[in-house]
Amino acid sequence: MPVLEWIRFILGAALIVLGLATFIMEIYGVYRFRYVLNRMHAAAMGDTLGLAAAIIGLIIMNGMNFTSVKLFLVVVFLWCASPVSSHLIAQLEATTNPEAGEYESKTLAALEAEEKEEK
């Protein structure tokens, strides 16, 4: 039985470390990117993946009990609420920022032609 406890501990600790690493990348992305929508993408990915990994790691370390069910429901709520709220905020930014303008789509041939002109 102690072997299973060690495996559970190592798996839970690995997921918590993965969550912390995701949070560190999220912080770097939020401060590194210049455009607000890129910053929001980094923050939303960090929230969704980082919190889920950390909480699932806690669930594994805690074992199966009522607290684990509550933690799982927190993960489900965050997976539903975080992308929706990020999308709404991004949509608000895109519609109210006059400097954002319209995004244009270019073909690969047009991008290659622009690159050749710059050289």
What's a concise summary of this model?
The protein has helices spanning 2-32, 36-62, 66-96, 108-118.
Describe this structure in words.
The chain has helices at residues 2-32, 36-62, 66-96, 108-118. With 119 residues, the chain is an all-alpha fold. The protein is built from 4 helices and no strands. 84% of the residues lie in helices and 0% in strands.
Global outline: elongated
Structural class: mainly alpha
Mean pLDDT: 86
N- to C-terminal distance: 66 Å
State the helicity in percent bands. Answer: over 70%
Question: What is the helix tally?
Answer: 4
- Element pattern in H and E: HHHH
- Which stretches are poorly predicted, pLDDT < 50 over at least 5 residues? none
Compute the number of strand runs.
Answer: 0
Strand content: under 5%
Radius of gyration: 21 Å
Major sheet characteristics: none
Please tag this protein with its features:
single chain; 119 residues; mainly alpha; 4 helices; 0% strand; elongated
Helix and strand arrangement:
Layout: H1 2-32, H2 36-62, H3 66-96, H4 108-118
